[in-house]
Specification:
single chain; alpha+beta; four-stranded antiparallel β-sheet; 13 strands
């Protein structure tokens, strides 16, 4: 073998080695790029999953709680009015009462109330008297004067069942009914009660 041929083969091997190195570097760069894209998509998916879970938990839990005894007013041996004390659940954002929907269900009727009055300045201690001639009202007893139910505030939802815009009549003893209070965000607060058999008192406590 001549020296020239040996040098030619050596040069070819060197070129092949450089080409292999270039291909290898290209593979490494492509793999790194793919890994970056994969990791980035993984982080994005994880973040979206966390947001979806947070939103689901927020929607699944109600921002409202019953704060005390649910009261009823009677007349002619029927339950005619209901007063539900409300407060904000711990850690929840304020609720806009002007956008809160109230639905009443009985075994024979379902009514969704609209244009509920919001009374932020009442001086009347009796929520049934504070309701006046309105069909339903949110009445604020501890509040800062706006239409938001906020932390440490206390409101009553008062409903005149006998009003023509509600049920149009009172409820007889042993009648079950449900009041659903749906804020703009979060799950609704559902209050289920049954009219007791003894309606001799003008104001009664409706046990859960």
């Amino acid at each position: 073998m001549t020296t020239k041929t040996f040098r030619t083969r050596k040069a070819r091997k060197g070129i092949v080695g450089i080409e292999a190195a270039i291909v290898l570097i290209a593979f490494v760069i492509v793999a790194a790029a793919l890994a970056f894209v994969t990791l980035n998509m993984g982080f994005f998916t994880t973040q979206k999953s966390k947001e979806a879970m947070g939103s689901s938990l927020k929607e699944a839990s109600s921002a409202l709680e019953v704060d005390g005894s649910v009261l009823g007013q009677t007349s002619s041996n029927q339950l005619t009015k209901v007063a539900i004390p409300l407060k904000l659940s711990s850690g929840k954002n304020p609720i806009d009462l002007s956008k809160t929907i109230v639905t009443i269900r009985t075994p024979t009727k379902t009514v969704t109330l609209t244009n509920i009055v919001i009374n932020t300045t009442t001086t009347e201690s009796d929520p049934f008297i504070a309701l006046g001639t309105n069909a339903a009202a949110f009445i604020g007893y501890v509040n800062d004067g706006d239409k938001l139910l906020e932390t440490n505030e206390k409101w009553f939802l008062v409903i005149d069942l006998s009003n023509g815009n509600v049920l149009g009549a009172g409820l007889d003893p042993y009648t079950s009914f449900t009041v659903e209070i749906k804020p703009p965000t979060g799950a609704p607060l559902t209050v289920e009660r049954m009219v007791p058999p003894n309606l001799s008192e003008t104001v009664i406590v409706l046990e859960g």
